[in-house]
Amino acid sequence: MLRNKSRTFQRGIRPSRKDLFNVHSSPQLAAGYSGKVRDKSILLGVTGGVAAYKIVDLIRRLKDEGASVTVIMTEASKNFITPLSLEVASHNKVYSGLFDTPMAHITLTAEADIMVIAPATANIISKFARGIADDLLSTCLLSFNKKVVIAPAMNWRMYENPILQENLRHLISRGVIQVGPEKGSLACGEEGMGRMSEISEIIEVIRSALSKKDLVKEKILVTAGPTREYLDPVRFISNRSSGKMGYAIARAAIRRGAEVTLISGPSLLSQPEGVKFVSVETTVDMLNAVNRELPSTTVLIMSAAVSDFTPAKRAREKIEKSGDLLLRLSRTPDIISEVRKKKDRPFIIGFAAETGNKVRRAKEKLKEKNMDMIIFNDVTEAGSGFDVDTNRVVIIEREKEIRLPLMSKDYVAEAILDRLSELRRIDG
Ligand SMILES: Cc1cc2nc3c(=O)[nH]c(=O)nc-3n(C[C@H](O)[C@H](O)[C@H](O)COP(=O)(O)O)c2cc1C
What we know:
The protein has 428 residues and is of the alpha/beta class. The chain contains 14 helices and 21 strands. The strands form 6 sheets. An 8-stranded mixed beta sheet has the order 12-11-8-13-16-17-19-20, with helices on both faces. Strands 2-1-3-4-5 form a 5-stranded parallel beta sheet, with helices on both faces. It has a two-stranded antiparallel ribbon with strand order 6-7. Helix 2 packs across helix 9 and helix 9 crosses helix 10. The chain is elongated and about 75 Å long. It binds flavin mononucleotide.
């Protein structure tokens, strides 16, 4: 679940939607972004649970990402939300009765890329598991032969009922993807397992289900966030990195089937689902963690904003304020240089966060440090770099250079992994 949901854009410049999702403006990447929901057709089943009111937000966000959403409502769900609300949100006709539109149970599923049931009642889960087709939604589920995602939501006793659990196990064994539920306060006033997953998590699972699995053989180590270099027990030197780029890469790599370890400096972001998470503070901590993980790593992606300097001395006690303080800084170890020395070094992707257009400097770094790819970005550019949801990067490889437009960090992550996948395929 993403805790930090706010979209912050520096200096009040908000990139247009076209910018955020426009991967195709780079001809090299015209094949597209693999985890995208853009241009996908989602058939969304809404069933009779209290969480149905949250579905307007799910539809809105899927549409923001460029998906087309068609809703099927069960009769019971209309007690919780009106068809009109979902029609307005989806900009599409809402379907419900099996006999209202002849053959809708076949035509709707033939056009869809994925089916999502949210919220999924105990009733629809059990009907689906047993192959019952007595309304439009349950009939569509039987006539659909691609991926189905279900987001159960119900009272905890219903959820823990062994019959329901057996039905869920059966669906999962048939390839149905379950997201949630979570533990928390329920609509009935009780606490327990049964809350529908957060919308952002449901979207992440949909993206993953639609994603190609081209990195299944890779063990990817991602570093993210800032490091902290302490002058005394309470004060430190750090930088503005939020970790958003590295976390986006970790999430994208998981979607594409890689085994992912994320070594993160202090960050407010939530741990991405499915990663092995290692929390560190200082550059030396990060180096030690990288060294520990390295033997099982095939690709190292160094997106952390590692501090280049550290106080030469760390005071044991808090430094008293008495006059000016002169600080002597010494260099921290260079993690990539350390890794490069290893015999079986992994494929290395570095980041060059520069102030100003120093692409040439990034190219020199690629060669000097013997990396396989370096991602350049100018952190002073509006909408790019630290603590924003967007980035404008140049992917620099040994043989080529790809300039990408301003895009969401999720899309930048996919673009980087597209190149990684291509190069790893060529290398065999
Ligand atoms: C106020 C109220 C809230 C309900 N909430 C849920 C719920 O959150 N999850 C669930 O599985 N069933 C819930 N039910 C029961 C379903 O609405 C019922 O099983 C219905 O037959 C489901 O039909 P459907 O699966 O076709 O939508 C609720 C019922 C009522 C009256």
